[in-house]
Amino acid sequence: MEYTFNAYYTLIAGTFVLLLGRLLVYKIPFLRNYNIPEPVAGGLIAAILAYLVYLVFGVSGKFSSELQTGFMLVFFASIGLGANLSKLKEGGFGLFIFLLAISAYILIQNLVGMGLASVIGLDPLMGLITGSITLTGGHGTAGAWGHILETKYGLEGATTLGMASATFGLVIGGLIGGPVAKFLIERHGLATGRSVREEIRDDKIPVAPTGEHTTFEFPHKTRLITADNAISTLAMFAACLAFGNLMTDIAKGTSFELPTFVWALLGGVIVRNFLESVVRVPIFDRAIDVFGNASLSLFLAMALLSLKLWQLVDLAGPLVIILSLQTVVMALFAAFVTFKIMGSNYDAAVLAAGHCGFGMGATPTAIANMQAITNMYGPSHKAFLIVPLAGAFFIDLVNVVVIQTLLKFFG
């Protein structure tokens, strides 16, 4: 039996998951020491409880996907709204190098999946599903390519397998990023962690109105905004989402077809720079921060709350082996390649955590991973500048090119 929860109850449940996660992280030293994001901690407990209820009573819940999608779009729009031209230029060479790293890993991820699938006697395309289609692409890409693989390449169950693999990646991506960064930071003596008391004390100090900060970098920091700021910012978000939906419809079936969240992000860049450079309207970054961080946390909480862990049980043993190996390869690549080529410093360690997030799950997971690190060890302006841009936009374009190229050779 499945119960359907409308948007109101979904919002209540998502908020409860966040509060639970925050309590767990502050009360359980293991979670805090290994920088497990609060939405992941609370969401996993909720998913496990839902699994137990399903096993014992045969009852499951279905939460509002529209609300979850809405928060995801607001999150990506906030990335665009926080990206003025000076920030885009500031990314510069570091962004280019990071793009090379993640592009190389997408190819490696697919070769690992397809190679191991061939070794254990599966169709190589099965390995592609457990590669960048689902782990880098996430649930949206899994659904889109799953349909193509079923109809065009005759791979039965590709969509179901893709959703299960993407679910696995979302969970693992939120679990390995923190430990990888912690290992790098402590091994190389890059920073000293703060205590819980120090975090609470620092978070009470408001972000200065003219202070230099990056969106998402200080999720628990106090931000001073007014009702007027909030209303004008909501209007900008609405414009970004409207632009995203409009462009999705216009570009459908063309060579410019992109996921709605990418259009929402581009809408944010256009709205921000048009208002700031042409109309000369001041942009309140603090309000964008508040809405962006809240949407990020709620999206992750709802995504994990909606997990049906019993679907993972349906994965055959060989596929579990592939996904486990992908986890190990991701952690090793982030620790010994991403970290090295990005400078082997604190920023590089935070970037490695971010790479684990969207390399196995999604960009929101990458941001949550980095927030967990910077909450304990201090800010990383470079990481919070590069990862949102790379993970939300460029990585999807690279992923599509790599997948299509591999399909031409092995399809």
What this model shows, in words?
Belongs to the glutamate:Na(+) symporter (ESS) (TC 2.A.27) family. It is found in: Cell inner membrane. One of its GO terms (biological process) is L-glutamate transmembrane transport. Catalyzes the sodium-dependent transport of glutamate. The chain has 411 residues and is mostly helical. Helix content is 77%, strand content 1%. The protein contains 17 helices and two strands. The protein has helices at residues 7-27, 29-33, 38-57, 65-81, 85-119, 124-133, 138-151, 158-187, 196-203, 227-251, 260-278, 285-305, 309-313, 317-341, 346-360, 363-377, 381-410; strands spanning 2-4, 60-62. The chain has a two-stranded parallel ribbon with strand order 1-2.
Low-confidence blocks of residues: none
Measured by DSSP, the beta-strand proportion falls in under 5%
Strand order of the largest sheet: 1-2
Compressed to H and E, one letter per element, the order equals: EHHHEHHHHHHHHHHHHHH
Count the E strands. Answer: 2
Helix content: over 70%
Shape: globular
Helix/strand class: mainly alpha
Q: Helical stretch count? A: 17
Q: Major sheet, described briefly?
A: 2 strands, parallel
Rg of Cα set: 20 Å
Give the overall pLDDT as a whole number.
82
Number of domains: 1
* Terminal-residue CA separation: 39 Å
Keywords: Amino-acid transport, Cell inner membrane, Cell membrane, Ion transport, Membrane, Sodium, Sodium transport, Symport, Transmembrane, Transmembrane helix, Transport
Subcellular location: Cell inner membrane
Function: Catalyzes the sodium-dependent transport of glutamate.
Main location: membrane
